[in-house]
Amino acid sequence: MKQVLTIAGSDSGGGAGIQADIKTFQELDVFGTSVITAVTAQNTRGVIDVAPVPIENIEKQLQAVGDDFDIAAVKTGMLFDAVTIRTVADSIKHYNWQRLVVDPVMIAKGGASLLKEEAKDSLIKHLLPLATLVTPNIPEAEALSGIQIYNEQTRRMAAEQILKSGAQGVLIKGGHGADPDFTEDFYLDQHGGSLVLRSSRIQTKHTHGTGCTFSAALAAEFAKGKSIEEAFLTAKQFIQSAIEHSLNIGAGHGPTNHSAYRHYAQKEMIRYVH
Ligand SMILES: Nc1ncnc2c1ncn2[C@@H]1O[C@H](COP(=O)(O)OP(=O)(O)O)[C@@H](O)[C@H]1O
Ligand SMILES: Cc1ncc(COP(=O)(O)OP(=O)(O)O)c(N)n1
């Protein structure tokens, strides 16, 4: 069984972070391991507290996984500060971990900061150059590129700017897009290869953890040797099912349904290149 590592924060509410990643790995038939960078007290209503894990412990978690497991793909989520980013980047190089998905988690839906402001430069300088794929949502892509996204052209410009970091590919997710009827995710790589996947926008407030789940699905598929195109399609179908059949848990923005992909038939995605 392929072994996959998530390096991210814990969400006590179970919808995002490490918990979302491990559930997604399980559903996609890969073995999930984890390095926890921060513990959040969080539920569907928001983030109540954030406690960073001491850096010495993060180093030991990385070592414990790296020394024993044959890691086929890695995803990063909430990294919180610059020293954690440096430590994670050093381990990725030390263990020569390939197929790295960097989800540049910055702000939770409720507005809580999950990455210190000064850590953004460290992310661009130390982690993005190692990435197979960076998966910002629209506000994160704007923060990483310094370009405001309001149409296809500015979305492409932002993606091109992010690729200057050295990442092999960038996938700008469309959950925060303006169109009320569909969401569009845009992929661009260093060779100019591009792909857009468009799906219907599901009218629901239960979208907590969509980005974590999507990037975990990408990492799981990469671990199984799937191409970017194949992994992108599976991850998009996985999150579409998970949102469409969400669980109505909690009083706020509820989690998605991580087992929906297994239970329900997949919807067609519109795909095109531009
Ligand atoms: N309401 C929705 N309907 C269908 N797909 C959605 C919806 N909201 C988000 N998605 C999809 O979920 C994935 C995560 O996107 P997004 O919500 O932008 O990330 P994040 O959670 O990091 O903000 C993307 O594939 C996006 O298209
Ligand atoms: C511990 C932790 N990590 C990441 C997030 C953000 O998750 P995301 O998938 O972007 O979902 P929302 O915050 O937009 O619901 C988080 N909340 N907690």
TrEMBL record:
<protein>
    <recommendedName>
        <fullName>Hydroxymethylpyrimidine/phosphomethylpyrimidine kinase</fullName>
        <ecNumber>2.7.1.49</ecNumber>
        <ecNumber>2.7.4.7</ecNumber>
    </recommendedName>
</protein>
<dbReference type="InterPro" id="IPR029056">
    <property type="entry name" value="Ribokinase-like"/>
</dbReference>
<dbReference type="Pfam" id="PF08543">
    <property type="entry name" value="Phos_pyr_kin"/>
</dbReference>
<comment type="pathway">
    <text>Cofactor biosynthesis; thiamine diphosphate biosynthesis; 4-amino-2-methyl-5-diphosphomethylpyrimidine from 5-amino-1-(5-phospho-D-ribosyl)imidazole: step 2/3.</text>
</comment>
<feature type="domain" description="Pyridoxamine kinase/Phosphomethylpyrimidine kinase">
    <location>
        <begin position="11"/>
        <end position="257"/>
    </location>
</feature>
<dbReference type="GO" id="GO:0008972">
    <property type="term" value="F:phosphomethylpyrimidine kinase activity"/>
</dbReference>
<comment type="pathway">
    <text>Cofactor biosynthesis; thiamine diphosphate biosynthesis; 4-amino-2-methyl-5-diphosphomethylpyrimidine from 5-amino-1-(5-phospho-D-ribosyl)imidazole: step 3/3.</text>
</comment>
<keyword id="KW-0808">Transferase</keyword>
<keyword id="KW-0784">Thiamine biosynthesis</keyword>
<dbReference type="InterPro" id="IPR004399">
    <property type="entry name" value="HMP/HMP-P_kinase_dom"/>
</dbReference>
<keyword id="KW-0418">Kinase</keyword>
<comment type="similarity">
    <text>Belongs to the ThiD family.</text>
</comment>
<dbReference type="GO" id="GO:0008902">
    <property type="term" value="F:hydroxymethylpyrimidine kinase activity"/>
</dbReference>
<dbReference type="InterPro" id="IPR013749">
    <property type="entry name" value="PM/HMP-P_kinase-1"/>
</dbReference>
